[in-house]
Write a structure and sequence with these properties.
With 117 residues, this protein is mainly beta. It has 2 domains: 30 residues, no CATH class; 84 residues, no CATH class. It has 1 helix and 7 strands. The protein has a 4-stranded mixed sheet with strand order 1-6-7-5, with no helix packed on it. Strands 2-3-4 form a 3-stranded antiparallel sheet, with no helix packed on it. β2 and β3 form a beta hairpin. The protein is flat and about 40 Å long. Keywords: Signal. It comes from Halocynthiibacter styelae. This is DUF4377 domain-containing protein. InterPro entries: DUF4377 (IPR025485).
């Protein structure tokens, strides 16, 4: 009888204690608060901006077929031109910090691969 009462209690305590570890909920086993290494990406930018809704109605770049609410540092879009760009994506703030009304990442132009009217 005592064994039947202790088994659920032991299971509950084991589960509760494992949830308090540093990597709880992180399937990769790495610390989620470590700085992310900047990534280089190749993207296509549509020739026209599109109406989109951020905090206010605005015109967004269309990158790889999706609205792109953030700007790309060092890049100026000219209407009517389709671009293929190499960009760098990095964290906008230090891990664990939050910037109100800003995206999680910042984007910077590395190079324009092509620009076609």
């Amino acid at each position: 009888m005592t064994r039947l009462r202790l088994t659920p209690l032991a299971l509950l305590l084991t589960t509760a204690l494992s949830a308090c570890t540093e990597d709880a909920g992180n399937p990769s086993g790495t610390n989620a608060l470590k700085a992310e290494v900047p990534q280089r990406l190749t993207v296509s930018v549509a020739p026209q901006r599109a109406d989109c809704q951020g905090l206010i109605p605005m015109k967004c770049l269309v990158v790889d077929g999706q609205f792109f609410y953030e700007g790309i540092e060092g890049f100026t879009h000219e209407a009517g031109t389709t671009y293929e760009l190499e960009i760098e994506r990095s964290l906008r703030a230090a891990p664990g910090e939050y910037i109100a009304d800003a995206g999680y990442y910042r984007y910077r132009l590395i190079r324009v691969i092509s620009a076609r009217p």
